[in-house]
Every structure is written in structure tokens, then in C-alpha cells.
Amino acid sequence: MTSNQTGVRAAGAWLTGASLLLTLALLFHGPLHPDLAMQMARIGQSASRWAAVHWAAAAACSCFAIAAVLMLVSHSRMTSTGATSSAWAVVLVGALWTLTTAVTEVTVIADLAKSGNVAQFGPWWSFAQGYGNGFAILAIAVAVIAWNEHRDSHRLLPKWSAAMGTAAALASFAGWALGVWFHVRPASVLWLLASGLMCLWLAWLGVVLARPNAARSPSDAAAHATS
Description:
Helices cover about 85% and strands about 0% of the residues. It contains eight helices and no strands. Helix 1 packs antiparallel against helix 7, helix 4 packs antiparallel against helix 5 and helix 5 packs antiparallel against helix 6.
């Protein structure tokens, strides 16, 4: 097994863990409310659950960042074009932005919501949502990765699943944009559902990548063919 293949398998394992953790966090997260007072009340009523959900999200984002770094240095088929290598770099940046949000939710926002401190909750909520936009750019990156998988003749997953992953990632981005930027309340439900589906597709991809010889680089494939 080459070092490239080892890196891809490790990235796949981290990607699987990240995706399953984030799916679990989304399951207990609940939709965001466009009204600040209502959102604060919701968090304050279950501050411990909110903190636990975002610790899980923080762990997931950390795993996504590790997976992206391992994928970028592996020089595999998954990063063989400018679009795909850029997409994995965006996954790294998006994960780090969202990690900042998750930690802020745990260490500051949950306590402020519990105490009912509206004056301080508002600015901190805006700060968290600003960095939370990292989730939106992460979703766009996943859409690029999934679409590349859909188009690739050496795809690892069925073509229909790659199309589903692309659609789910785009719907996740749309749900976040409409819900957070334009305060369309039903869009938050779309974001949750689409993000969960996106994470399940990423978990599937991660499981396949963790197998031996899953995504060899062109040079590795040529060497294997002539051996």
C-alpha cells in the first residue's frame, strides 16, 4: 500500500466519523427561529442539550478538518483537478469557521440564553451566525465533490447517489441562505433535512474511501496495472 492510499484511507475514516457525528448533532439541533427572542427562549429551555449538541458538532468539524488535510496531501483521484482540490480546501476552511460557532454556542450562548441576558445574547448570536456561514460554504464544497463523483467514470459510489449528494448539499446551502440571511422560517427545516442527507452521503463516501485501493492516484493506478 502506498503512502497516498494510506492517506486516503485515513481521510475516509475521519470523514465517516465526522459525518456520523454531525448527523447526530443535527438530529437533536432543531430548526432555527428567525425571531431572536424566540430562539433565545428555545435555547434557554434546554441549555444543557444545546451545549451537548454543539460539543458534538465541534468534534465533527474537527474531524472534517482532519479529513480535508489528509485528503489534500494524499494526491489521490479525489483531488486530481483544480475544482476538487479547491473543494477539499474549502471543506477545511468551512469546518474551522463552523467549529468556532459550535464552541461559541457551548461556552457563551447557552449560558446567556439560560440567564435571559438579551442585551449580550444578540451580539454573540450574530457573531456565531457569522462564523456559522462556514457551514454554507462547506455545503457548496460538498456539492462540488459529489458532482465530480457523479461525472467521474471511476466513481466510487453509484451515479444516483452522487447526484443525490449534490442535490442535498445544494439544498443545505439554500436552506441556510434563506433561513439565516433572509429569515424565511421554513427554510431552516430544509437546511436540517438536507444537511442530514448530505452527511449520510459523506459517511457513505468515507466508508468506501477507507477501503484499500479506493481512490488511487493516476500514477498509482498505472503502477498497479503494469505490476
